[in-house]
Amino acid sequence: MSEESYALHHFEQGLSSKLERAQHIHAMRKAFTVVKKRQKANLSRISDLEYRKRRLRETRENSIGNETLLNAAVDNLSQNGISVLRANSKEEAVSLVINAIASDGLVVKSKSNLTKEVGLTEALEAVGIDVIETDIGDRIIQLCGDIPSHPTGPASHLTRHEIARILSTHFEMNVEPSPEAIVEL
Fold it and tell me: Could you give the 3-state DSSP secondary structure of residue 56?
């Protein structure tokens, strides 16, 4: 490859990458514009919103670090047959989970920002445990090997056409680029 064709190839790759990034930014803006519009439209449906926000803030402030409340929650969960494991660090938490489920080989995981914060999925996969995300945005990100663009909208940077292409490839079938077809699949 000549120096000139190498430079042209590099230029085209950079341009393609920048174009894809611009498309992702546009998709995110569009997704969050729709969310904000829906939120604004629904504000009038909650007459006591300010009271609820204040109460939520107070509850959060009274709950974080409250050992008495934590112990009561653990007791209630245990009484309902739920196994509760407590850890003092993210490494210990990951280790406890791996030890509890290592022989299963498969985890079907619902949306949890805490598991993302401690790197649970990566740790499970590193020891040979398959992880399947159930949140649609997280599952799409998992299938394409991308990184989430937002905690509550992990695939918001992808267009419906990109998502349909990812799903079509993974499931080896044609998935229409409509929200209904994507969610139905």
Answer: helix
Question: Which residues of the chain fall short of a pLDDT of 50?
Answer: none
Residues 6+ apart with CB under 8 A from 171: 185
DSSP characters for 121-179?
HHHHHHTT-EEEE-SHHHHHHHHHT---SSSS-TTTTS-HHHHHHHHHHHHTS---SSH
Residue 25, amino acid: I
CB atoms within 10 A of CB 121: 19
Residues in the chain: 185
97's CB contacts (< 8 A; 6+ apart) are: 85, 120, 123, 124
Closest to 164 in 3D by CA, of 133, 140, 138, 135: 140
Q: Which two tokens stand for residue 140?
A: 């799409």
Contacts of 47 (CB under 8 A, 6+ apart): none
Q: Which pLDDT score is estimated for 7? A: 56
